[in-house]
Amino acid sequence: MIQLTVNGVSHSLDIDPSTHLLYALREDLNLHGAKFGCGLGQCGACTVLVAGKPTFSCLMPVSALGKRPVRTIESLGTAERPGPLQKAFIEHQAAQCGYCIAGMIMRAQALLEANPHPTDAEIRKHMEPNLCRCGTHMRILAAIRAVSGTPAGTGKPATETVR
């Protein structure tokens, strides 16, 4: 029996300990936000937060989680009531096909929780492991900037004077 805490809820799953977290989320917990992209940890479509850190769930066996909590896109909001980051992605039309967006949002969420006002360079560096094949990277960056309050091309929050 594997014990997981996902989105604040404790679960006991009768699954093989080598099962990757992605499959436990999708098949056993019916959480379909994280997607299978490459299965190699190279695209980020499966990104979730494990103890606040962005993690490729396609590579993480559930036995390696220990007691660390997992958060998925479903913890941030719903279609009817999107969270701030989800809302910004919608407003900035950051999704074209949408396949990568849950992973992008979770990686961005981790960044903003650790650094509420990142510079453009910090956003780009943090988001680098996740790929968007549709090429909406500039809209994704704009959505993250909108939530952080950092205008494009600066490292200063919008509430500060930029000289």
UniProtKB/TrEMBL annotation:
GO terms for molecular function: 2 iron, 2 sulfur cluster binding; metal ion binding; oxidoreductase activity. It comes from the Bacteria. This is (2Fe-2S)-binding protein. Signal peptide: none annotated. It comes from Cupriavidus necator (Alcaligenes eutrophus). Keywords: 2Fe-2S, Iron, Iron-sulfur, Metal-binding, Oxidoreductase. Residues 1-76 form the 2Fe-2S ferredoxin-type domain. Pfam families: Fer2, Fer2_2.
